[in-house]
Design brief:
Chain lengths: 318, 296
């Protein structure tokens, strides 16, 4: 701003060139100024509510935070406590099972659905709509609904399973069954979302490839192996990465309503345990340390996904 | 691992050798198509049935809500009457509506401004800034929940509408999608306007914004849906019963009326209905914005 103040002075001395210079400069500066103003609201907001919290989350792990906002440096104290907290390691173990089961199942189901609704079937639009529909319902409603359907006394679904001769089970009342139920419900909610992503990926594959394969007499399995699967790699990578990150850190709403982490902490995933430490027990510092550890795991797992799928690039060296 | 499961769906289209297929080509294709249609039908029903069952059960009386029948033997609106008279449910709905609408409008304005600058204005450090904004996409909400809570507490945002609205406005997803869209717009109109002496704000407001109506409406639906369904942030950021949003309202309802499933399901239906309506009205936009986020 101050440099602009000197411009008229110079302009008076060397009129023509300076005036041109000034106009050119001021137009460039006007563009900079406009960019700054256009970007300011979002950048300030992102800094305050995403950037600073992100940095803070790393530092908070080294503090003990009281409920009223006083911070006390404890060094690695929180991490030492984490190492000897059996409940946290239980939560990590359950999280590992949850991720290892959920991600492949969700991947296979959504890809299967994507392949299915890509076919030219009568009323295929209606099928797509129906399969996507659970996704628009909030996880709170989903949790309530399935708590009702899986209730071991009055639940319609648990009743139907019993009527089918599969025995009476307490689907939300036994730790391992409750985890299985949580996974099944998550698949039910999310399959439509990933189906749409797979469908988009499938529609990107040029139709000529399929026609050529047909002429060559390739069967459906062969076509899938040699055309669909390799060309779908970017989409597969994206789905795998998204669903892994979501499985590691998401689902809090659903657990909260469906099982509250129970029974016997059987569905207490790491993110739920962290939530409890922070907002039930007021251990913000300790919970942040656990959160940082979970983020570290998330980064490592993402790196593995990246390696395995080669970042979703097409060339697979075959 | 995924491959094995996939054999099921694609194998059902027929796994006989090509010669046989060619001979009975048309007949086989037709029966395979019928089989696939049936499979799709079964899966679609399985996907929707729980939701239909919820809606149907919300019209049942307390004694019959757990009878397991798909259709209520007698319709009653008592559950809805109860939810709206005995519980401040109207307040919850209005809170959610107000919060989601304000977030959506402000977020679209801010994100489209930022995206316009990132896509169309020239200034030093533009690509670096974009990379920085993009990198915040990797920060998932649950991970920063605790520090965000502490920041909101320092800023005196807890237990206020501002606290429910402001932190929810900012996410890089919208900026990213809009920037991609603006990069693809033809430059001619803008350049003509600039030659005519229009300022950048005029160009943005009267040329770029009207041209981005399709993507803005897709994002609007998406933002509104996400914020209407939000639960965790309102849960930790508010205590005041007057600020209860609808998702929080139904989850506390469940604690109060543990076995009164008829009331709980009526409330859950009311909470889900606006989103289902939105979905049916703007299905294409929702699906399009998901597709774009996946490919690009």
């Amino acid at each position: 701003m101050t440099s602009l103040g000197t411009v008229p002075d110079t302009a008076a001395r060397r009129p023509a060139r300076a005036a041109r210079e000034r106009r050119r400069l001021s137009r460039k500066h006007r563009e900079w100024l406009a960019a700054a103003l256009f970007l300011a609201p979002d950048c300030i907001g992102l800094l305050l509510f995403v950037g600073i919290p992100m940095l803070l989350s790393i530092f908070l792990g080294f503090f003990q935070v009281s409920g009223f906002g006083s911070y006390r440096w404890v060094g690695l104290g929180n991490y030492e406590r984490m190492m000897s907290d059996p409940l946290f390691w239980d939560a990590m173990r359950i999280t590992a099972i949850y991720v290892v089961v959920l991600v492949p199942v969700l991947f296979a189901v959504s890809l299967g659905l994507g392949l299915l609704v890509k076919q030219k079937l009568p009323a295929v639009g209606a099928f797509r709509t129906a399969l996507f529909l659970p996704y628009v319902i909030s996880l709170v409603v989903v949790g309530l609904l399935w708590k009702f359907l899986l209730d071991d006394q009055v639940g319609a679904v648990s009743g139907a399973i019993e009527d089918a001769g599969l025995g009476h089970h307490s689907w939300l009342g036994e730790p391992s069954l409750a985890l299985a139920s949580l996974i099944a419900v998550t698949v039910w909610v999310m399959m439509g979302y990933y189906m749409v992503i797979f469908l988009a990926g499938l529609q990107e594959i040029p139709q000529e490839f399929y026609e050529a394969a047909k002429i060559d007499g390739a069967g459906p399995w062969r076509t899938f192996r040699s055309i669909t699967w390799p060309l779908l790699r970017p989409t597969s990578f994206f789905v795998l990465l998204m669903s892994t990150v979501a499985a590691l850190t998401g689902g809090l709403d659903l657990i909260f309503v469906l099982t509250s982490g129970g029974p016997a902490n059987g569905t207490s995933l790491a993110i739920f345990y962290i939530y409890q430490q922070a907002f039930i027990f007021g251990e913000y510092g300790y919970a942040s340390a656990l959160g940082s550890f979970l983020v570290l795991i998330m980064v490592l797992v993402s790196a593995v996904v990246f390696r395995v799928t080669r970042g979703g690039r097409f060339d697979d060296g075959e | 691992m995924a491959n094995e499961t996939l054999t099921g769906s694609s194998g059902s289209r027929g796994d006989s050798p090509p010669a046989v297929r060619a001979r009975r080509g048309i007949g086989r294709a037709r029966s395979a198509r019928a089989g696939l249609t049936l499979l799709a039908l079964v899966l679609a029903v399985a996907s929707v049935l729980p939701v239909l069952y919820m809606v149907s059960a919300s019209f049942k009386s307390r004694d019959t809500v757990t009878d397991g029948k798909l259709f209520p033997s007698e319709f009653t609106f008592d559950n809805y009457r109860y939810v709206f008279t005995e519980v401040p449910f109207t307040r919850y709905l209005l809170n959610s509506f107000l919060i989601s609408a304000v977030i959506t409008v402000v977020a679209l304005l801010f994100h489209s401004m930022a995206a316009y600058a990132l896509a169309r204005l020239r200034f030093p450090g533009r690509e670096k800034l974009f990379a920085l904004i993009f990198s915040t996409l990797l920060v998932t909400a649950p991970v920063v929940l605790i520090p965000l809570f502490l920041v909101a507490r320092e800023l005196n945002l807890l237990d206020s509408y501002a606290g429910l609205i402001i932190p929810a406005i900012f996410n890089a997803f919208g900026i990213f999608l809009l920037r991609q869209f603006y990069l693809g717009l033809p430059r001619e109109l803008e350049e003509a306007a600039i030659v005519d002496g229009c300022g950048h704000w005029r160009v943005y407001w009267s040329i770029v914004l009207p041209m981005s109506r399709p993507i803005l409406s897709a994002l609007a639906v998406f933002f509104f849906l996400a914020n209407w369904n939000a639960f965790v942030w309102p849960l930790v950021a508010t205590n005041d019963p007057d600020l209860t949003v609808v998702q929080l309202g139904i989850s506390t309802l469940q604690n109060q009326y543990t076995s009164n499933w008829n009331y709980i399901l009526a409330a859950a239906t009311v909470a889900a209905l606006p989103m289902l309506a939105l979905f049916f009205a703007f299905q294409r936009q929702i699906v399009e914005s998901i597709k774009t986020s996946g490919i690009k």
